[in-house]
Design a protein that fits this description.
With 364 residues, this protein is an alpha/beta fold. The protein has 3 domains: 7-172, NAD(P)-binding Rossmann-like Domain (Rossmann fold, 3-Layer(aba) Sandwich); 178-289, 6-phosphogluconate dehydrogenase C-terminal like domain (6-phosphogluconate dehydrogenase C-terminal fold); 297-358, 2-Layer Sandwich (Alpha-Beta Plaits). The protein has helices spanning 15-26, 38-46, 57-60, 75-84, 99-108, 152-164, 174-197, 204-208, 212-218, 225-233, 236-261, 267-283, 309-319, 349-358, and strands spanning 7-11, 30-34, 51-52, 63-68, 88-93, 117-120, 141-145, 168-171, 297-304, 326-331, 337-344. Strands 3-2-1-4-5 form a 5-stranded parallel β-sheet, with helices on both faces. Helix 6 (152-164) links the parallel strand 7 (141-145) and strand 8 (168-171). 33% of the residues are buried. Bound molecules: nicotinamide-adenine-dinucleotide and prephenic acid (PRE). This is Prephenate dehydrogenase. Its EC number is 1.3.1.12. Residues 298-364 form the ACT domain. GO terms for molecular function: NAD+ binding; prephenate dehydrogenase (NAD+) activity; prephenate dehydrogenase (NADP+) activity.
C-alpha cells in the first residue's frame, strides 16, 4: 500500500530524531520539530532538520506521521498526548524496547489503530541533535512491530518512513523483538560497559598501550547512562538472561586460566572452545547489517602530532576536489603520531589516497 509522507512531525530532536529528520529533509519531506528542550529544537533546526512545530499549527497543518523519538519510558505518555490533540494521521516511535511501550500505550487507552511501533537498529554512542547524521540508517535493519489492531495504512506510513531513511524493514512481534535485541544490542552494551569500567582504574601505562581492540570493544560504552538505564529496565528479564549466560562463559574462562596459571595444561581446551564459539558467533553477523555498501569510505592517514598537519590535509582534499564528510582522530598518547580517518564518498577515496601518496603522506 503506497503511503505518501508530505509532512512528518518529529517529537524528540536528539540523535535519532534529528538523524531521521535530516534524512527526510533530503527526500523533500516537510519536517516539523518538537522537543521539551527548546535548545534541542533550535540546534536541530539550525542543522537543517526542519522547522519548529508551532502548537497553533495543530489544526491547520496536515501531519501525515508523528515520530516519537524520546526515551522509552516517555513514549506512551507522548503518544497519548499527541493523539488527544489529533495531531497526526499516523504515529510511530523509535524506542529501543517495544513490548513495554506498546502495553503502556494500550493501558493508557491510546488508539492502537493509528500507531505502529518501530525501532531502527542504528545509532551512535553520542546523544543530542549535534550527533545527528542523515545517513545513519542507510542499509540498517529497522524493526516494525504492528499490533493486531494496527491499520494497514498506519503500517504503510511507517514502511514509507523506513524506505525514505534508506533502511531495511524487519517485521517482528514486539516480545520477539525484545528478546532478539537483548542478544544483539542490550547485553552487548552492558558487556562493553563492564570491560570499559575496568579502565577506570587502569594505569597510565596500560592506557598508553590502548590500541584499536579496546576501542572497538568499548565504543558503545560511551552511550548516555540515563538513556541506557531506561532501555535496560524496559527489557530487564531478557537482558538478564543473556548476561547470565555471558557471565557463565566468563567465569569458566577465568577458572580455566587460573588452572593454566597453576600448571594445568588441560585447561587449554576449554579456552580454545570459548574462542572458537566466539569466532562462530561473530561469523553469523550478516555482512554490514545485510544492507548495501556504506555511504562513505574511510581513508586513513598517518599524521604527525605537529601544528598545521590537519589544515594541510584538508588543503589537499580541497585541491583534488574531495569533500570530507566526517573526520576522526586517533591519538596514541605519548607518541608523536596519530591517525586521521577521513570519511569520503566511495569514488573519492582512490583519488584522495593517490593524491596523499604522491605528496608523501603515509597511508596505513
Ligand atoms: N542512541 C541510539 O543509538 C538509539 C538507536 C536507536 C533507537 N534509539 C531510541 O531513540 C530514542 C531517542 O534516543 P536518542 O539517542 O535520540 O536520545 P537523545 O538523548 O539524543 O534525544 C532524546 C531527546 O528527547 C527529548 N525528550 C525527552 N523526553 C521528552 C518528552 N517527553 N517530550 C519531548 N521531548 C522529549 C530530549 O530533550 C532529547 O532531546 C530512545 O527511545 C532510544 O531508545 C536510540
Ligand atoms: O552503534 C551504536 O552506537 C549503537 O549503540 C546502536 C544500537 C545497537 O546496539 O546497534 C544501540 C541501541 C539502539 O537501540 C540501536 C542501535
Amino acid at each position: 500500500m503506497a503511503s505518501e509522507l508530505r509532512t512528518v512531525l518529529v517529537v524528540g530532536t536528539g540523535l535519532i530524531g534529528t538523524s531521521l529528520a535530516l534524512a527526510l529533509r533530503q527526500k523533500g519531506v516537510r519536517v516539523l520539530l518538537a522537543d521539551r528542550d527548546q535548545g534541542a529544537v533550535r540546534l536541530a533546526r539550525e542543522l537543517g532538520a526542519g522547522e519548529e512545530w508551532q502548537p497553533d499549527e495543530r489544526r491547520a497543518e496536515a501531519i501525515d506521521l508523528a515520530v516519537i523519538a524520546v526515551p522509552p519510558g516517555q513514549v506512551a505518555d507522548e503518544l497519548l498526548s499527541l493523539q488527544k490533540g489529533g495531531v497526526a494521521r499516523f504515529y510511530t516511535d523509535v524506542a529501543s524496547v517495544k513490548a513495554e511501550p506498546i502495553e503502556c500505550a494500550a493501558r493508557l487507552g491510546c488508539d492502537l489503530t493509528s500507531y505502529v511501533a518501530s525501532h531502527p537498529l542504528a545509532g551512535r554512542e553520542k546523544s543530542g541533535p549535534g550527533a545527528g547524521r542523515a545517513d545513519l540508517f542507510l542499509g540498517r535493519p529497522w524493526a516494525i512491530c504492528p499490533t493486531a489492531e494496527a491499520s494497514g495504512a498506519a503500517r504503510a506510513a511507517v514502511l514509507r518512513l523506513i524506505e525514505l531513511c534508506g533502511a531495511n524493514p524487519v517485521e517482528v512481534d514486539a516480545v520477539d523483538h525484545d528478546r532478539a535485541v537483548a542478544v544483539v544490542s542490550h547485553a552487548p552494551h552492558v558487556a562493553a560497559a563492564a570491560v570499559a569500567a575496568r579502565l577506570s582504574d587502569a594505569t597510565e601505562v596500560a592506557l598508553g598501550l590502548a590500541g584499536q581492540g579496546v576501542r572497538d570493544v568499548t565504543r558503545i560504552a560511551g552511550g548516555d547512562p540515563g538513556l541506557w538505564l531506561g532501555i535496560l529496565s524496559g527489557n530487564a528479564a531478557p537482558v538478564a538472561e543473556v548476561l547470565e549466560a555471558v557471565s557463565h562463559d566468563l567465569a569458566e574462562a577465568a577458572s580455566a586460566l587460573r588452572a593454566l596459571a597453576d600448571g594445568d595444561g588441560t585447561a587449554h581446551g576449554e579456552i580454545t572452545q570459548l574462542l572458537k564459539r566466539g569466532v562462530a558467533g561473530h561469523d553469523r553477523i550478516p555482512g554490514k547489517h545485510g544492507g548495501p555498501a556504506p555511504a562513505y569510505v574511510v581513508v586513513q592517514v598517518v599524521i604527525g602530532d605537529r601544528p598545521g598537519q590537519l589544515a594541510r590535509l584538508f588543503q589537499i582534499c580541497d585541491e583534488v576536489g574531495v569533500n570530507v564528510e566526517d573526520v576522526r582522530l586517533e591519538h596514541a598518547p605519548g607518541l608523536p603520531l596519530g591517525i586521521a580517518e577521513l570519511s569520503v564518498q566511495p569514488d573519492s577515496a582512490p583519488v584522495l589516497a593517490q593524491a596523499l601518496r604522491e605528496r608523501d603522506w603515509q597511508l596505513p
